[in-house]
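[[Sequence with tokens]]
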Amino acid sequence: MTDNKKSGLLVVVSGPAGSGKGTVLSSLMQDDDYRYSVSATTRGPRPGEIDGVNYHFLTREAFEARIAAGEMLEYTEYCGNYYGTPKREAEEVLRNGYNLLLEIEVAGAANVKRLYPDAVLIMLLPPSFTVQEARLRGRGTETEEKILARLAQTREEIPHVTEYDYVIYNYDGRADEAVADIRAIVRAERAALCRNADAATRYFQ
């Protein structure tokens, strides 16, 4: 656990398909200061997925009941299914002084920033749109229709980068640099005076 006993930071990481979010966030999770939020969804589990580990799998009625009760930190509906972050678990992580990582799209990120102005929003990008397309095609795991849909979604989402606090480029073979950049951002944000307004008082305790 971090030496700073204050609340942890809420860190939102967004990025288009092919940005390397999975690799970067997996590396960050090796640090004891970070925790990853398990999202809730109304879609059914895929082979190998475990309830409470990959997602909290809920019925549509249960998810909507949580929305009505104010129990979701953020949520969105995508392709007919709800996806969101349970508020109670997220706030418990922050109270315990850990930095909470949320991997969500731009709409969800905007909702989080509105509800939690202190949240740190980071956009992770490939070096360019051309590189992103090459990465998606290089995977060899998706149909042409799916690739084009992902690229079209990128064109819609990238203009929202101006709503983020930071942008980090994830270059091929240099994911460790992107990880280091996020760590540096979080360290700087935790040391910001706005988060340590009682520094003078605490110094003499």
Observations:
- The first strand starts at residue 10 and ends at 14.
- Residues 175-191 form the longest helix (17 residues).
